[in-house]
């Protein structure tokens, strides 16, 4: 029996070593992802400096499983560009399951987080992930969508990509529920946060960016750095021009991230397509 247990432990160590080596190959990680059955609803994974629980069947979760991160390189680069800020609060609008909130706090730049998220499925995972990473005590989770007025709005779900759910109505028959709609300035007043204390706004809200910008005038007036997804095709030419003209009156610099490229541009001449843009004083 003792010999059997020794052999079993040796085989287990060999197995772990073999699979550890195989996981370094992109093809093996992708194949492993394909073999996950639909009845495995959630996966918890330990990364180098944090832990996340996520669905392996939707876009962000697949990236986490296959690549080991979701846009962490972008988060690290944004922190490098903005440098030290006087504001010690991170405001994430469209926090999803908390990946970027966690990435951005690993730098110890922020003492407090405000996470705004309207989707109940995301909110549940967001709260779990904050707890897993000991961030729940210094995070305020606000359960709503963001827009240019306070009220109620239809929120449309994308089951294959939780991050693509939006208050912007899609072309297909995606189901929707009504959620609370809040202005950013209303939220900050309600939770007693001064705009001066915000060091960075991270925003990805799938087409609702122009309306959200109108609701955070105090932050824009103070030229707080903002990282946002910019997709002019979702806004239409008139609304896109109106937003970029407004932002150009306040921000002096804009860094555009597209694919693996990075370039500084005039805000009024932003490119078409989908890009992440960083607004800087």
From TrEMBL:
Domain called Methyltransferase FkbM: residue spans: 92-248
Keyword Ubl conjugation listed: no
UniProt-listed SUPFAM superfamilies: S-adenosyl-L-methionine-dependent methyltransferases
GO molecular function: methyltransferase activity
Tagged with keyword Flavoprotein: no
UniProt-listed GO biological process terms: methylation
Pfam family, one: Methyltransf_21
Leader sequence residues: none
Keywords from the named record: Methyltransferase, Transferase
Protein name stated in the entry: FkbM family methyltransferase
Organism: Mesorhizobium qingshengii
């Amino acid at each position: 029996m003792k010999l059997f247990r020794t052999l079993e432990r040796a085989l287990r160590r060999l197995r772990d070593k073999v699979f550890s080596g195989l996981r370094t190959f992109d093809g093996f990680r992708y194949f492993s992802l394909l073999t996950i059955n639909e009845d495995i609803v959630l996966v918890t994974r330990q990364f180098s400096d944090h832990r996340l629980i996520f669905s392996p069947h939707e876009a962000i979760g697949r990236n986490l499983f296959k690549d080991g991160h979701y846009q962490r390189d972008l988060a690290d680069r944004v922190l490098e560009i903005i440098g030290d800020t006087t504001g010690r609060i991170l405001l994430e609008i469209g926090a999803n399951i908390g990946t970027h909130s966690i990435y951005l706090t690993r730098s110890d730049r922020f003492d407090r987080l405000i996470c705004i998220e309207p989707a109940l499925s995301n909110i549940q995972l967001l709260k779990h992930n904050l707890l897993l990473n000991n961030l729940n005590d210094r995070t305020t989770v606000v359960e709503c969508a963001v827009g240019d007025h306070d009220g109620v709005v239809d929120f449309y779900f994308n089951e294959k990509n939780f991050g693509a759910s939006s208050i912007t109505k899609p072309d297909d028959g995606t189901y929707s529920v009504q959620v609370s709609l809040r202005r950013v300035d209303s939220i900050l007043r309600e939770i007693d946060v001064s705009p001066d204390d915000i060091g960075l706004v991270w925003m990805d809200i799938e087409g609702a960016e122009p309306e959200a910008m109108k609701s955070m005038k105090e932050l824009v007036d103070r030229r707080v750095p903002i990282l946002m997804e910019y997709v002019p095709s979702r806004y239409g030419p008139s609304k896109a021009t109106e937003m970029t003209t407004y932002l150009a009156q306040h921000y002096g610099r804009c860094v555009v991230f597209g694919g693996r490229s990075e370039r500084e541009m005039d805000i009024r001449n932003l490119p078409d397509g989908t890009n992440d843009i960083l607004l800087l004083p």
